[in-house]
Amino acid sequence: PLREAWFKEAVVYQIYPRSFQDSNGDGIGDLRGILSRLDYLKALGVDAVWLSPIYDSPMDDMGYDIRDYRAVLAEFGTLDDFDALVAGLHERGMRLIMDLVVNHTSDEHEWFQQALADPDSPYRDYYFFREGEPDAAPNNWTSFFSGSAWRWFEEAGAWALHLFSSKQMDLNWENAALRTEIVEMVRWWRERGVDGFRLDVINYISKTPGLPPGNPLIGRLIGFTGMEHYFHGPRLHEHLKQLRAEAFDDPDCVAIGETPGIGPQMGKLLVGDDRGELDMIFNFEHLENPGRTRFDDYRYDLGYLKRYYTRWQAEYGDGYWMSLFFDNHDNPRFVSKVDPRPEHRVAVAKLLATVQFTLRGTPFLYQGQEVGAANQGFTMLDQLRDVESHNLAAELTASGVAPAEIFARVLAGTRDHTRVPMAWDATGGFTTGVPWIAGDGSHVEVNVALQEGDLDSVLEWHRALIALRRSSRALVYGETITERSSRRVWRYRRRAGAEEFLVALNLSDRVARLRAPGPGWMLERASGPGTGPLAPYEARVWRSSAG
Ligand code: TEU
Ligand code: CA
């Protein structure tokens, strides 16, 4: 039986605060800027906003390195601005989802500073400190941002663990007092009106006790050593159950786990209704073709996407709920991965939107996706701001890779493709000052103002499909029935009671034959000609006249 919930019916929009809207001309997006754009989001059909971190931070990893969990970064505004944003959202019938980063804190967090200064401090056990010698790291685990996962602190004569940047220190969830602090912090934000949380790398919080060495063979296979000791650790479910019971103790408070490496079976253990853990997860296997990584430059085969979602929709059935997303702040634009040729951009963007709004699950849009924003034509490393990109370039340089090849790899995968300013109009519209990171000028042709009211635009396609989804129980809660189709076509129905939709998608850049639907089907929307064979990347949606 399907449990209904607001977040299953919702369309969520992810905002990267630094790059969405600047209100005071300092070139940095801020909370007042977001507030000024709420009417735009409402008119698009957005039900909830997920804000990437706005907490006080030295910004080593753009806010995913938190210095103070109960303060807003000064560049973004104040707690009063935050309260105004919550009120502005709620007045418009929208909700707020905060990013919750509790696998690690900044090394500048007060807990870490006290732990560093005094080995007897109660905070020492909040982290993974290991006393030793500067030339022998405690184990062979590697960081996701290059090099060892251990940093030597001379003043403490000890190493500390960081799975991400050397300023993001992993928290020790074995410590009960730490867990209580996190529960209290979450409750503090909930009392300010927050409606839910996106939990950053939450499947990494439980590590195998003793932190044994990683298997080098697994490390070589997946590119990171040690991951088998924390991606689905021994106490993960126990910790999540505690969070649900003590921090998210309200079925309306949505908890979405960011869980790299979790497949459908483990996914079910995290999101099952009877489990008392999370409501949804983000996993990332659909973003790359098998055998590829984000830093490979290749054309994505959509046939894999069809197989992936067909499998997950069937595995999840009625008892589990999926997130549906393509873009976020950690990945290049998916539209560019599928087909980087400008003449196909609009068709691919509409095709992807159709998948997001007609499959079963909650769609998450990332800012700019609704206008079909593509990857940026960066030409040199200096234009990039992301610590991950710079660390990777340094690592490849040290291992003797040629500069041109280094840049090609970084360009394929850099997270800065999606971190450039939101394109509001032909002048940019993001700031009156100098933006903290510059785009490549494509905002002149791809922007909100140009597309608003243009019924052929990517933006209006999003608006129309969001409205269609909202009007239909079948498109939200209905079962997904995959139909037989040729390799290049993806065809499925969504059905609830007498209401039924049929979707046909051309996954290729060539015209594709289509078995015409029977007489009971009325064409609802088409991104191409709408009759005869499917145009390249065309998406068509029909409604059953019986319903
Ligand atoms: O991202 C973690 C994540 O999924 C990848 O960026 C990571 O490199 C992956 O596990 C490797 O396969 C989250 C945030 O979304 C990201 O912005 C942060 O940098 C990161 O956590 C650390 O907080
Ligand atoms: Ca600003």
UniProtKB/TrEMBL annotation:
InterPro entries linked: GH, GH13_cat_dom, O16G_dom_2
Similarity-based family: Belongs to the glycosyl hydrolase 13 family.
Record organism: Homoserinibacter gongjuensis
Name of protein: Alpha-glucosidase
PANTHER family xrefs: ALPHA-AMYLASE FAMILY MEMBER, NEUTRAL AND BASIC AMINO ACID TRANSPORT PROTEIN RBAT
Any Pfam family hit: Alpha-amylase
Record-annotated Glycosyl hydrolase family 13 catalytic domain positions: 14-419
UniProt xrefs under Gene3D superfamilies: Glycosidases, Oligo-1,6-glucosidase, Domain 2
Domain of life: Bacteria
Signal peptide span: none
Gene: malL
SUPFAM superfamilies linked to this entry: (Trans)glycosidases (SSF51445)
